[in-house]
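Hi V.,

You were right to ask for the full record rather than a summary. Here it is.
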Amino acid sequence: MLIGIDPILNADILFILRAMGHGDEIVIADGSFPAQTVAKRLVRMEAADLQRMLKAVLSVMPVDESEPDAVIGMEVIGEPDTIVPAHTLIQKELDVMKGEKVTLKRVKRFSFYERTKEAFAVIATGETLFYGNVIIRKGTVNLGNN
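Predicted structure:
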């Protein structure tokens, strides 16, 4: 165990988050997502849900605030303006982050799948909410050395 680190962030996830560079993306996927098919690196966390995993990841990884669309979710098929509970949950976690306001952007299902193929890694959760998937682009940490 580590002080101040959510224990759901196991060694594999912490290694991935630390290895990622500025601009790399990570996917937190629901239980229906084709994670094995698209992932370059895959960590299975079926006992976790989206909110717990997202909150834990955001507690240690900065989001890229320098470019738009740093956090991307999946649109409802055939209803691009519909907001489902998973979208609300993701935005809620983004709203409590420090720094610039980050807004969830939604893209079509197959655009989301294509983008995930380029992601650094996928964390496959056991989330049961429909559209409970999110892509997060890593930002930088300013340690005050500038």
